[in-house]
Amino acid sequence: MPKQKFALALGGGAARGWAHIGILRGLIEAGLEPEIVVGTSIGAIVGGHYASGRLDMLEDFARSLTRRGVFGFLDLSVSGSGLIAGQRLFARFEDYLSGLKIEDLPVKFAAIATDLSSGQEVWIRRGLVTDAVRASSAIPGIVKPVGINGRWLVDGCLVNPIPVSVCRAIGGRVVIGVNLTTEFGRGGISIGDDIEEEAAEIVVDETPITRWNGRGAFQLLHRQIFGRSDGAPGITSVILNSFSIFHDRISRARLMGDPPDLLVAPNLMDIGVLDFHRADEMIASGRAAIEPHLPMIERFLKAPPPALVNTRLFAG
Question: What residues are annotated to the active site?
Answer without folding.
Answer: 41, 155
